[in-house]
Amino acid sequence: MNEVETILEQARLFVVQHAPTDALRGAIPAALVFLVAGIGLSVLGAKLARFGVTSAFVVLGGVLGARFGQEMGFHPLICVLVGGLLIGVIAYQAFRLWVGVGAAIVFSSLVLGTFGYQRVVPYVAEFQQGAQQPAIQSPITFAVPTPLEQQAYRDRTPRQWAEEFWAFVTQRDANLASKTKWLATVALLTGLCLGILAVRWALILATSLVGTVLVTTAAATLLTRSVPESYQAFQNNPSLVGVGVGGFLVTSLILQTMLSRKSPAAKGESAAKS
Q1: What tens digit of pLDDT does each residue of 192-225 get?
Q2: Total structural domains in the chain?
Q3: What's the distance, Cα to Cα, between the start and end of the chain in Å?
Q4: Cβ proximity of 210 and 110 under 8 Å
Q5: Residue 231 belongs to some domain of the structure
Q6: Are 31 and 217 in contact (CB under 8 A)?
C-alpha cells in the first residue's frame, strides 16, 4: 500500500512540475465555477431543469437564426427571435425526450465507468510500462520521463493515446470490445426508458450524481491547491472521503425529492387537465 501511495505522490509532483503554468493557475477559478454549478445542480437541478433546458435551446435557436440570417441576407434580429422562439417551443414540448437522453448519457457513463474501472484501468500501468520501457525496472516503480520522452508524450495527441491504449487492451482481452458495446447499448436504452417513463426521479438522480461529481472535483482541487497537506490526509483516509461524498449525494437526493414535490393545488390542476 505504501508503494502505491509513493507512486501516486510522484505522479502528482510530476503533474505540478511539468504541467503548463497557465493551466495550474486557472485551476482554482475553474474549481470555483464547478463548485457553484455542482451545488446548484445538487439542490435545484431537478426543479429548474425544464427552465434550464428550454433556455439553453432558446439561446441555441437564436445563434442558429443569426447564422441563417447572415447566410440568406435576412434581418438578423428577426431571425434570432424566430429561431429562439421556434427551437425553444420545440425543446419545451419535447422536454421528456431530453430528460431521457440526459438520463441515458448519465446512466451509461456510470455503468461504463464502473465496468472500465474493473476491466480496463488495471491495464494502464502495463501499457505505460511498455511505452516508457527501459526506464522501468519494477512493476511498481514510477520514473519521471526524460525531457525527450516528455516531448514525445506531448506530441502524441489524447486521441492517439486512447487508440493505442484501446488496441493494447483488446489484444489482452479479446471479448472486451463486444462486451463494452453490448453493455453500452443496454445502459443507453435503460437510461432512455427510465428518463422518459419516470421524468422526476430520473432528473433527481441524474442531477444529484452530476452535482456530486462537480462538487467533489472542485473541493479536491481547491483543497490540494490551497492546503497541499490535505492531499496526504485524504489519501490516508479513503473511507472518510467515501463517507463525505456519499453523505453529500444522499443529502442532495433528499433535498431534491422535497423541493421538486408538487403542491396539492398543482396536482389537482394536472389531474383536471388529464
Answers
A1: 998 999 999 999 999 999 999 999 888 888 887 7
A2: 1
A3: 60
A4: no
A5: yes
A6: yes
